[in-house]
Amino acid sequence: MTSEVDGGDFSPANVVRILVSTDNHLGFAEKHGTRGEDSFLAFEEVLRTAKEQRADFLLLGGDLFHDNKPSRNTTFRCMSLLRKYCFGDDPVSVHFCSDPGKVFDGDNLTVNYMDPFLSISLPIFTIHGNHDDPTGSLGPKQLSSVDLLHSAGMLNYFGKAYDSKSISIEPILLRKGTSCIALYGLGNVRDERLYTTWKDEKNVQWKRPQGADVVDPEAWFNIFVLHQNRVQRGSTHHVTESMLPSWLDFVIWGHEHECRIDLEGGTDGPVITQPGSSVATSMTEGESKEKCVGLLEVFQDQFKWTKLPLKNVRKFHIDDVVLSEQSSLHPAKPMEVEAFLHAKVEQMLIDAETEFDRIGPILDERLRQPLIRLRVDYSGGFEIVSPQRFGQEYIGRIANSSDILLFHKRKASPTPRRQFIKGMLSDIQRAENDQEDVQVPDLVRKLLEKQENLEILPVSGLNSAVDRFVTKTEPHAIVDYVESQLKEAQRAVKKEREDAPTLEASEIASICERLGRSTEGSPTPRLFPDGTGVDLPMDTTPVAAAGQSSSESESPHTARRSSRQTTRKASKTRARSGKPSQRHNVGKPQSRHAPASITRGRARTRASELALESETAREESETWREDDGEGSPVEDAVDTARGSRKRGPKGFKSSRSARRRNAGSGSLHSRYDID
Questions:
Q1: Is residue 131 annotated as a catalytic residue, yes or no?
Q2: Could you say which of 131, 150, 255, 317 is catalytic?
Q3: How far apart, in whole angstroms, are the C-alpha atoms of residue 127 and residue 612?
Q4: Of all residues in the chain, what percent are helix, strand and coil, respectively (each to 5)?
Q5: 74 near 67, Cβ under 8 Å?
Q6: 52: which residues sit within 8 A by CB, 6+ positions away?
Q7: What b/e sequence results for 406-420 when a residue is b if at least 16 CB atoms lie within 10 Å of its CB, and e otherwise?
Q8: Worst-scoring range by mean pLDDT, 79-93, 172-186, 257-271?
Q9: In 3-state terms, what secondary structure has residue 272?
């Protein structure tokens, strides 16, 4: 492919004009008094530029929204801008040649500008990023916030990978005159998983153009847009440029916010461009570069790439200073150090004003307040200046007045004693010096990889759940993942121990409901060692047959009842001797100044009384089994849940009432959690 358009039949009717932008992050800092409009102003300029450049369509590289669940204000502002710039009567000259069912998901299985109920003048094609990726229910029906816009017909969402372990990339086929475009897209997939699927397992399949409307597959100009890390961060593998197919012609790399829009590669592989973000979302070196979009013009197998800087963006200036290298400064004179820093910031403000004067008028005057970041190395005994107090003088002049200064020290060579801490906090230390983004899941992964006793919960899966909990605001992500893993572990254990008695979740729920109403004070259930079920006390000893001796036929629970009856008689005898019953003292406050011996005696007496009451309740439960042939309320609830017998006769109500009166240790279901 050549980068300059040339050909005998060259004409505007045969040239496909594509405006390219990535990482718009609508809704970033929307509650900030000064920066709340930044993302919307930049995105509006992107849409307006597409109209001014007469683009056939706008191609976005992911992260249209900053939050996985954008606010109502962000969604409303986005839809308003799309209606303003994308709806109209101007015809779309690009012909859609693909099968919509293969490239789109949901009920709206068509490209929006071919919908007879819509009037689209500027089509938008987009993939999802790591900020607005599909989440929610399992399976192919995971939804992204971009799905809502696609369903409303405001844009065309493609590149969704339903199974990260087996990815099939289907192209969108577009034609304008004699120029044919095969547009491939892949939304964000977790880097480690995508690397394994792509590099190790080789389960990424590329579909080449085919069909009745398709000409020679080699005649198509192949564009690929993705949203992944381009550089390695931590120990996680990532997609590299060498993994891209050589037959691709043009690659648009999203996710990286640094603007590297000038073309790279192209010798033995595809040409790569990295437009970067349209709004600064972090105070990093890459974010300080000029914000741009690109115009791609394709004529048959040739293309032209034009860089278009954005004007309505907040300027970001970053600089470094090492206090120990300034000969005029001394650690014992902090006032001079602070004055030096003020002078440095003032010079950065002058540079920002000069740049604004060069650009000319802008949409919003609030954009004239730049972002300033001064990274200060205070090694050598210097003290830290309060960033909040320092920024008071710049309120109304600098957008980030409270965090202008960032203090850090040079890294020292770690001792063997600090190797573990250095390994866990390497990303944080790099953030302090290089101001790169720190992702919470990366820190969690580093922590979990140090653990050697994780057997049920894999590190990668748990890290993914933490990612959804932190960045996607899914409150049940970790709980759902742990439950699913526990169920898998339980099924595996049950398969090995088929004879182990277990209760299903519905049975446990039914038991809890029944016990919560009628069996307060029952003994706490126990879990099997493998955690697969609830071991409720049940008596399955058969009644002795006629003719057997008492020693041979006496069941264990009958022997226990005889022992308890003896204990009760002894207690009654003590009560007749004149000693007050401890039952009447239940709930009365004890004297604060009572001797320790008396307090311990009362505790022992109270414990004996509670044990006696519990034994009385158990005796009644066992009497029901022998006299009525039915089980206790616990057993009755279990049998009812299992469907093996119906509830006991109505006469049980009086016994249950008596049991509730005698209960003294709380309800059964309050002692353990069943989800």
A1: yes
A2: 131
A3: 69
A4: 40, 15, 45
A5: yes
A6: none
A7: bbbeeeeeeeeeeee
A8: 257-271
A9: strand
